[in-house]
Amino acid sequence: MTEALNLILSYRKNLEMKLDPMRYEHSLSVSFTCINLAMRYGYDLEKAEVAGLLHDCGKRYSDDIILKKCKKHGIAVSPEEEEAPAVLHANYGTWLAKHKYGISDPEILSAILYHTTGKPEMSVLEKIVYIADYIEPRRNKASNLPEIRKLAFEDLDETMYQILRSTLMYLKKKGGKLEPITEKAYEYYNQLHKCSL
Fold first, then answer.
1. With the C-alpha atoms ordered 5, 9, 12, 18, is the resulting torsion angle positive or negative?
2. Are 55 and 87 in contact (CB under 8 A)?
3. Which of 34, 79, 88, 160 lies 20 to 30 Å from 1, alpha-carbon distance?
4. What is the pTM of this model?
């Protein structure tokens, strides 16, 4: 066995003990989806697998406990995040990936950090993890999943636009709060979408 595979197996074992069974299964599904997208787009398979596997490593606690842990470890929390802490597991997960799992690769850490909010001008890995989290096989709530799953293997930027658009529509309908960075991400990918028409 290679050193990389041993490391991935140790991450899996640790996550299986720390996450609830459904969250662990989701993490495995996201990592496998990341590998598939990485194969399609010629990206590093190992980095994609690790980022996908660890993307929700911070999601083992309730939002209020995650907020306390962020403050305890000096993790930056915006006023918007404090008001709507559902996305904070990405901030805490990034800290865990670095300090508990020994991840030093800035691309992997950034992919974990932005997997819930997105951002303008995302890297290939950031897009892969964001999209894989949305389309992994165990997901079933979004009505447009069949189209998005197909599109994900055709055009990452257009897939980002479609997911962000769906997220905005869903949050507006439910009266939910939108992260400012997600709005900026939508504006960025909306511009790319318009230019491609």
1. negative
2. no
3. 34
4. 0.95
